[in-house]
């Protein structure tokens, strides 16, 4: 397997560091930043031995899957930097639509409707394929001695294998009929990133990113539950707001804006969140 940057990414000044195996692409990218790397560096591998998801959860990357981290360095407000996760989700979904065959009919993993389309974005950091988890996105950061912010945008994708016996259904690109490899997906991802990060424009284009993200949002208009402030909130997924917070309309009609949490959809929402 060979990893290559898309010509558009190379022309935009991005660089590539590819590995057969790493402990964590995010950790390695941040090490480079602390050693003086100026960013716009992709660190990629088809195997990751000590990857992490949100809240310290393990993210397994067996051989053949994709672990990719984009290192960006600059003067960012933390809240602005956090919205790069939405840029990553859009870039990955663009790449998936570009490389995965379309002959299969999109049906959700639970047999129900598929809000958001075949590849849908689940707030805040997952990409679903036909309703099952395909990818996770994790942002980690470090403040550098000169005051700049180093941000590692980690993207893990189940290309050839996916975990079994998980709380949510999971899938892989191989199961969807994808005949390529992690290198093929990364090539498309590096291309799609260029367009989406330009649209983001250091946060100045966040409203355009928000609107585009909503066109691919999983569960928009559906019943959801989420644990917040020591309770389980339930309602209808209305939108994400100007700060990309999750907005639900509760039974009494009030709007609740949530900055972080695990969202559960549909019929399983009550049981999973409790």
TrEMBL record:
Coiled coil: none annotated. Residues 1-201 form the BPL/LPL catalytic domain. InterPro entries: aa-tRNA-synth_II/BPL/LPL, Biotin_CoA_COase_ligase, BPL_C, BPL_LPL_catalytic, Transcriptional_repressor_C. Its EC number is 6.3.4.15. This is biotin--[biotin carboxyl-carrier protein] ligase. It comes from Nitratireductor aquimarinus. Signal peptide: none annotated. GO terms for molecular function: biotin--[biotin carboxyl-carrier protein] ligase activity. It comes from the Bacteria. Gene3D superfamilies: 2.30.30.100, Bira Bifunctional Protein, Domain 2. It catalyses: biotin + L-lysyl-[protein] + ATP = N(6)-biotinyl-L-lysyl-[protein] + AMP + diphosphate + H(+). PROSITE patterns: BPL_LPL_CATALYTIC. Keywords: ATP-binding, Biotin, Ligase, Nucleotide-binding. Pfam families: BPL_C (PF02237), BPL_LplA_LipB (PF03099). CDD domains: BPL (cd16442).
